[in-house]
Write a structure and sequence with these properties.
The protein is of the alpha/beta class. It has helices spanning 6-17, 28-41, 46-72, 95-102, 113-117, 132-144, 147-152, 183-191, 195-209, 227-233, 246-261, 269-294, 305-310, 312-322, 329-341, 361-367, 369-375; strands at residues 85-89, 108-109, 215-219, 238-243, 300-304.
């Protein structure tokens, strides 16, 4: 493919599946804008263009199969997603660790990489831990991940994962700003209506809980950019907002993004540093503004990184109690087992500094001054 083309990608997906119905949720404008920005901004070479085309075809295949499953199993549409818990906030604030720990609790469902990548047919509780799709994703996505990436972010087919994989086929995907330089697409995302994408997100949860029920705990820092759309689709959502010193988390976040972005021709890590620090500040301010204007205080709780590291069971119990839920003795034991089996830095220590990305601690403290003072995270 000399140039990415929406119609050709959709045709590929239809030929691959033998299906033709992409459903009524609108994704074509988002895909067109994404393609436009990729061709204009991302400096794609032939191998990256081919890899991107395959990734987008896979997302379209997922869409086709989800729509088809919804017809074959009418009960999916009747599933109720009640009071889902979302973990959000600035990145690198311990949300991945907290998500993994909460996923161990009784009655909790947290989406795994394998079931978001290959959701069709709906997974079943009886075979959830032995589903052959787990090995399939271990042999593809996980095997392809570099040791550098694993050092910075835990990756496994059967570990709880960020929930953008639930609605990536809507192509309103903040995660694509990591591997590609996409200013045109980024600016479009900042002004677009994300409600259809969250409707797809909810439909995916209905799909996954159809034969394996539970209360959802979900995690993605970029929900802070679109909290209004999230609450429009999930008015009973409960929010855990994680916090940590920005002078630590912003360089750490940029270091992670660099792992993906450095494949871009002409990559400049100091330009990335300025871009990403400003981007995260914008998300922080937008998220907190929407929180203050749209959320009831009883539906949100603040959890600090230091508190989770000091006593994770106590931190989880505090969150549960805030939402009127008790943490069982069995859940506490499971959390402790998970901690013992998933030691921090088991793939090596992630090292970074603000200065290597053209930043400084003083500049970050100024940029995030309001946040630091509000939540006491200096």
């Amino acid at each position: 493919m000399d140039r990415l083309d929406r119609k050709q990608l959709m045709q590929r997906a239809q030929e691959r599946t033998g299906l033709s119905d992409f459903g009524e949720l609108p994704f074509e404008e988002a895909l067109e804008m994404l393609i436009f920005s990729l061709e204009r901004d991302a400096r794609l070479d032939a191998p990256r263009r081919a890899g991107t085309a395959e990734m987008f075809t896979g997302a379209l295949v997922k869409n086709l199969r989800l729509v088809d499953d919804r017809k074959r199993y009418p009960g999916i549409a009747e599933e109720v997603v009640a009071e889902p818990i979302f973990i959000l906030g600035l990145p690198r604030t311990g949300s991945t660790n907290l998500h993994g720990l909460m996923a161990q609790c009784e009655g909790i469902r947290a989406p795994r990489r394998w079931e978001m990548a290959l959701p069709s047919p709906p997974p079943e509780a009886a075979t959830y831990e032995t589903d052959p799709r787990i090995a399939q994703i271990h042999g593809t996505e996980v095997a392809a991940a570099s040791e550098e990436l694993k050092q910075k972010h835990p990756i496994s087919a059967d570990r709880p994962e960020q929930c953008f994989g639930l609605n990536d086929y809507m192509f309103m995907n903040w995660s694509l700003l990591a591997p590609y330089e996409l200013p045109t697409y980024r600016d479009w995302l900042l002004t677009a209506d994300h409600r259809p994408s969250y409707e797809a997100h909810k439909r995916a949860l209905q799909h996954l809980q159809f034969r394996h029920p539970g209360r959802w705990v979900l995690k993605y820092p970029k929900h802070s950019f679109t909290l209004d759309a999230l609450l429009a689709v999930y008015p009973d959502a409960r929010i855990i907002w994680t916090h940590r010193d920005p002078t630590r988390i912003i360089p750490s976040s940029i270091s992670l993004i660099e792992t993906f972005r450095k494949a871009t021709p002409g990559f400049d890590r100091k330009l990335l540093g300025r871009e990403w620090a400003s981007y995260e500040e914008l998300g922080m301010r937008r998220g907190l503004d929407m929180r203050d204007n749209l959320m009831k205080p009883e539906n949100v709780i603040d959890i600090h990184y230091a508190d989770v590291m000091k006593d994770p069971v106590a931190a989880i119990e505090r969150a549960y109690n805030h939402f009127g839920v008790s943490l069982s003795a069995e859940s506490k034991a499971r959390v402790l087992r998970f901690l013992a089996e998933n030691a921090k830095d088991k793939h090596g220590v992630h090292t970074y500094s603000a200065e290597e990305f053209g930043l400084s601690e003083a500049m970050l403290r100024t940029l995030f001054k309001d946040y630091i003072e509000r939540f006491g995270v200096a």
